[in-house]
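Worked problem 6 (solution included).
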Amino acid sequence: MLCDIDRLRTLIGGWESDPEAAARIRTAALALITAYLSTGYDVVLPQLVMRRDQIDRFRAAAEEAGAEYVGILLEIEPYAAAKRLHSRGRDAGHDAWARFVLAEVAAQGGDAAFEREHAAFEAMAAGDDALIRIKSTDLDSTYDALLKALGER
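Solution. The predicted structure is:
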């Protein structure tokens, strides 16, 4: 199952102006993830988690369900991440989440925010030896590296 918490967040009425919407949907998603994992199936969570306590919640959900937690970091240079975001923004007409993220990035100083967030994330993730790091370049190479890291190739 693909559990995109950011997309789920857009299902809450008034989510754009509700500072608690993210916390509520994350809690609901954790319940969903735990239930799904307990049936023996996998969950992919495409989420940038910037806080250790939140990562620990996802690890605990996997453990509670008797599943293995695998943390993967797709590494990308900040300028390349900004470029990818802007390319998604060109198609954001019907994508409420993409429009929201673009506005948030602009409010935090534009592309320079990627440098700050990258540094903050690296500092937080530095001590996580269990985190699998994969260089994210093009789609095919990144996917191939992911499969190799997971022992699928």
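Discussion: The longest strand covers residues 72-75.
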